[in-house]
Amino acid sequence: MRWEGMTNSFSFLKWACSASLVTVFSFSSLCAEDGWKSVKTKEFFGKETAQERGKRMEWFGDARFGMFIHWGLYSVPAGDWKGEPVKRNNAEWIQSHAQIPSADYSELIHQFNPTKYDPEKWMELAAFAGMKYVVITSKHHEGFCLWDSKYTDFDVASTPYGKDLLKPLAEAARKNGLKMCWYHSILDWHHPDYGFKKSWRGNASNPSPDMDAYTGYMKNQLAELLTNYGDIGTVWFDGEWEKEAWTHERGLDLYNYCRSLQPNTLVNNRVDTGRKGMDGMNKSAGFAGDFSTPEQQIPETGFPEGVYWESCMTINDSWGYKTRDTDWKSTTTLIRNLVDVSSKGGNYLLNVGPKPDGTFPEAIVERLKGMGEWMRVHSSAIYGTKASPIGKPEFDGRLTIKENADGTLTIHVFVFNKPEGGKIVLKGLAGAPVGNVRSLTEPKAQPLSLSADDGSLSFVIDGELPNKHASVYKIVLKG
Ligand code: H79
Q1: Cβ-contact 274, 63 below 8 angstroms
Q2: I need a surface site. Which of 126, 159, 284, 315 has the fewest CB within 10 A?
Q3: Shortest-distance Cα residue to atom 3 of ligand 1
Q4: Does residue 392 share a domain with residue 376?
């Protein structure tokens, strides 16, 4: 909704309903007739059979690779405030790190003008890289909304750009075979009713922020996001850790609310208050959420069947675009991270921070293209695979497996660095080999001979590894 000033009673009502300024009126009482109250929230959490759950989770369990996009007003200062670099990594946290008062920070809205935004190009690149879904910040902690929301002026409609950024992205994603997903922050530094006050936040001068009213606002917005943009793959909440504001009861209710709008969508575990810090798994049963979310880390091991998880990680050190951050991970590291995550049965959600003009930094484009080139040859060893049955092998590499329709088992052996002598030993793998070892990296190469002796399989790689990022060998076992 665009900011038009308060010239008549209608725009006054809009102001009172919006998050743009501290308001003495209760948000929910003025806007009660539309939005979330008309949504019948049914109990969904824990109410489906294992089979139903498996079906709902299936695409996520097979996907392995997604694109995370952090984009918002913070992309404009890009890590600097008043010409000075703000310490700490995360450029999307600049308002908090520099304690920028809400009124000053909100001025950035007049500078956000991504005239070079080309969502087709973004999604073509994501698809080329091998990504199967895309998660964008519909709203990050700053509170700015990337779509034209009826419920606030603090959105893209109030920027010089003025157009919904999410609709064309959702269309481009689907056209390129990716599922559209939303990251939506529970924490909101702008909204006057958000339930935990700080001097620089938009709730600072509200004597009694009303978290029920704020939750109503968030639900109204989620109704927009889960009604007007087609099927949404995942709703990815974050910013749930302030105990003064967010509770288990609110989390469970919000989970059920999202699924009442879209029964098949997946909701991450940060909707509730059960995650164990940055390792992102749940402390114990009973917390809502369909999958776990380790942040900036890959778990040491895989998890039992039926535990779904996704490691989200940055491509440099910041989530939001940061001009001074050139600490780009190498293409090799990114590919090996994807392999590592796959070998443990998880998904890799790799973040990009677009520039305020709507383009990706060149370093990101280069790396995603490099991943795509590798994936074009090797993706069958990534998608729809299962975790290694023997954990990490002793050589520098990883394994994934695939159960074939004819009852055989394909083992993909990823080799990062060749061990001395080139002998690859797979301990603890029994079963009768079908044929020899074939190279996925070089399908035309001569098969290598496979030895099976008590409880281990082995083969020898001669010469250089054929791929510098990760070379892949295939073994088929019967029984
Ligand atoms: O959106 C990106 C970041 O801006 C956001 N999450 C990713 C996906 C984020 N990064 N860091 N933080 C949020 C800060 C959270 C830090 C902590 Fe905590 C909150 C540390 C202590 C309280 C997490 C929750 C770890 C322990 C509890």
Answers
A1: no
A2: 284
A3: 319
A4: no
